[in-house]
Every structure is written in structure tokens, then in C-alpha cells.
Design brief:
This protein has 273 residues and is mostly helical. It has helices at residues 2-17, 19-40, 49-79, 82-86, 93-126, 132-159, 163-179, 181-189, 194-207, 209-220, 232-239, 243-272.
Length: 273
């Protein structure tokens, strides 16, 4: 595990030297303060139209930020020749990719922790802080988005040859998963027989990390009734006493599968060199 630790430590150092990281840190801090100002107009507890809007705002920013930083991290290794140097050391692809994931996760989680911590501190001082449960769910929602989309970002960085390709693919994935998802879901499900709709909803939801985390957070906030009958089974298992544990297990499997696919793609690219 020592190579993984060294790669992760190196990634943390590079990440905090990256001007993009500080740009996103400033952006997310401002964004968190905006959320605080929004909720200051009303006490935010549970699921409401205001809470849903705040979740959507986080959903627009964090996946894009994660996809860009994560994919650029791997493409930079190719463009700058760092991978050629690292490959001369006794380090496996698994150790390299896992270390990159852990290092970038620390950088990104530091960014969102600073943003939420700043808004929470200012809110507490001004007497306009989020409710503790709601604040915890917003923070957990952000962590889930970061970790899941970081696993996707590493796959993008593996496929892309340079930062421009990574940028193009990352924006396309973000648009499909966040902006275009409702239209794609409606269009796709409309072509299926009625009995296939519920299984298709389950399968497609699992494939989209943004939708997976969003549904879990909405149900935990008490808004499961707004999802419709197609999501009844989701509401039931999430509300179960073991619902949170099962969700964490599902996310862990999702990340493991995504990272495993990245390792396989990186190995294929490495064998062709």
C-alpha cells in the first residue's frame, strides 16, 4: 500500500498547487454563501421547493467541477510526460489509479468542506444557519457527488489524449447526466412496454450517479412522495433502517466498478505504447 500512499500524497501536493483548484475553491465558497442567503429568507428543514432548488444548484456545479479536475489530473500525466517517469518505478496500474483517486478525493473534499464550513460559520454567527439535519444531508449529498463523479472523471482522463479532449468529453458527460437526463429518460421510457418501465427506471437510475445520489437525498429529506409511483421501491428501501448502509454499499460498488474499468483501459493503453 505504500505506492498508493505516495501517489496519493503526490496528487494532493499537485492538486493544491493547481490554480484550477483555488478557482473552484473560491467559486464553491461564494456558491455556499449564496445558498446561505437563499435559506436565510426561510428556515430550511426537510424537503420543499426551496430545498429542491438548492439541491439542483449543487447538482449543476459539483459534478462539472469534479469531472474537470479529475480528468485533467490524468491527462496532465500524459502531456507532461510524468507517467513515463512513474512507469520506471515498481508501481502497478492499480496502485497508480487508486492513489490518484484518493489524492484527488482529498483535494475535492477539502474544497467542499471549506465552502460548507465557511457558510455554516457565518450562518451560526448571524443566527441564520441551516438546520443540523438538512446541513448534514447537503454535505453528504455533495460528498456522494464528488466521489462518484471522480470515478467517472478518471475514466475520462484515461480515454482522452489531452486536456482539450478531456474538456469536451467531461462537458458532454455532465450535460447528459445533469441537464439532458430528464428528457432522455422520458423519451427512452416512452418507447418501452408498461411492465418494463419500473425495472428500466431502477437500472437507469443506478447508471446515473447524479440521479442516484439526488433520489437518496430527497427521500432522506422527506420528499419521497414527489418522485411518483415509478420510484416507490426506491423510497421503501431508502427509508428502511438499513437504507443508508445499503446506499453506501451500492455507491462503493459503483466506484469500484468505475475504477476497475479505468484500470483496464489504462492497461490497454499502456500495452499499446
Amino acid at each position: 500500500m505504500m505506492p498508493v500512499f505516495h501517489v496519493a500524497l503526490r496528487e494532493v501536493k499537485i492538486g493544491f498547487r493547481n490554480p484550477w483548484a483555488y478557482s473552484f475553491l473560491a467559486l464553491f465558497s461564494i456558491f455556499s454563501l449564496i445558498l446561505l442567503l437563499i435559506q436565510a429568507q426561510n428556515v430550511v428543514e426537510g424537503y420543499s421547493g426551496l430545498t429542491g432548488s438548492m439541491l439542483n444548484l449543487i447538482l449543476y456545479l459539483l459534478p462539472l467541477m469534479t469531472l474537470l479536475l479529475g480528468s485533467f489530473s490524468l491527462t496532465a500525466e500524459k502531456e507532461e510526460g510524468s507517467w513515463e517517469l512513474l512507469s520506471t518505478y515498481p508501481i502497478s496500474t492499480f496502485e497508480f489509479i487508486t492513489g490518484k483517486f484518493l489524492g484527488m478525493a482529498i483535494v475535492l473534499l477539502t474544497i467542499i468542506s471549506f465552502g460548507f464550513g465557511l457558510s455554516g460559520l457565518i450562518g451560526a454567527i448571524g443566527g441564520r444557519a441551516f438546520g443540523f439535519t438538512t446541513f448534514g444531508l447537503f454535505f453528504s449529498f455533495s460528498i456522494g457527488l464528488v466521489l462518484l463523479f471522480l470515478a467517472v472523471a478518471l475514466g475520462i482522463g484515461t480515454l482522452a489524449r489531452n486536456r482539450w479532449q478531456a474538456l469536451t468529453i467531461a462537458v458532454a458527460v455532465w450535460f447528459f447526466a445533469i441537464i439532458g437526463w430528464p428528457a432522455v429518460l422520458i423519451a427512452g421510457l416512452g418507447q418501452l412496454p408498461y411492465l418494463w418501465i419500473k425495472p428500466a427506471v431502477v437500472g437507469l437510475t443506478i447508471l446515473n450517479p447524479a440521479e442516484l445520489v439526488r433520489l437518496f437525498t430527497i427521500v432522506k429529506l422527506g420528499g419521497g412522495s414527489v418522485l411518483g409511483p415509478e420510484y416507490y421501491q426506491w423510497v421503501e428501501w431508502i427509508k428502511h433502517p438499513l437504507g443508508t448502509l445499503n446506499f453506501l454499499l451500492l455507491c462503493s460498488i459503483w466506484i469500484w466498478v468505475a475504477i476497475s474499468m479505468t484500470i483496464l483501459m489504462w492497461e490497454r493503453g499502456r500495452s499499446r505504447e
